[in-house]
Amino acid sequence: MAHRVRVLHSATQQTIRMHYANCNTYNADYDGDEMNCHFPQTDLARAEAEFIASNDLQYIVPTDGSPLRGLIQDHVDGGVKMCCKDTFFEKHEVQQLLFASLATLAGLEVISDAADIIMVPPAIQYPKHLWTGKQVVTTILQHMRRSSTDPHAPWLPGVTLERKSKTPASAFGESMLEHMVIIRKVSARDKQN
Question: Which of 8, 101, 124, 193 has the most beta carbons within 10 angstroms of its beta carbon?
């Protein structure tokens, strides 16, 4: 995959460099592993390399169906820090995060470019409007229920979930409930109460 891997041409540096998010796909762990490069010569071989061996399309292990690709340390650390109870964002920061996650990459948009990004009301109203990181995640989850092709299509039903996270209860204090992932589907009746 020449467009995803860079080969250095120096006589002293004969190495392949790739982003560490792709390492699990190749079962690479930086302990002296070797990789061989193959350059497909026929149209059939090129098609197989592009569609079958593309690491961007490999999300589960074929043998047992376990996840192959997932979040890496940077994503996990950022998600934990963003969702702490004392993390607040101003309106322009929330808008930037939402736009970057919902509408920026052509062909990978969560919502269509004709749809509006609907923000939840701020958690703090005075002295200025501030949103929590959890509200950013809430807004992203709500927009994932929408159709990416038809902005007027009905939304998919919501989800209610309560699970323990990988963050230990002792990290923030058990009373803070930061060790729990709680997602609640809010109905129109609940919003009125």
Answer: 101
> With helix as H, strand as E and coil as C, how does the chain read?
CCCCCEECCCCCCCCEECCHHHCCCCCCCCCCCCCCCCCCCCHHHHHHHHHCCCHHHCCECCCCCCECCCCCHHHHHHHHHHCCCCCEECHHHHHHHHHHHHCCCCCCCCCCCCCCCCCCCCCECCCCCEEEHHHHHHHHHHHHCCCCCCCCCCCCCCCCEEEECCCCHHHCCHHHCCCEEEECCCCHHHHHC
Instruction: Find all residues with CB under 8 Å of 123, minimum gap 6, and list them.
Output: 88, 130, 131, 132, 135
Q: In which residue ranges of the chain is pLDDT below 70?
A: 1-17, 30, 70-71, 104-109, 113, 147-151, 186-193
Domains and CATH numbers, the chain: 6-57 (no CATH), 72-156 (1.10.274.100), 157-193 (no CATH)
pTM, two decimals, is 0.61
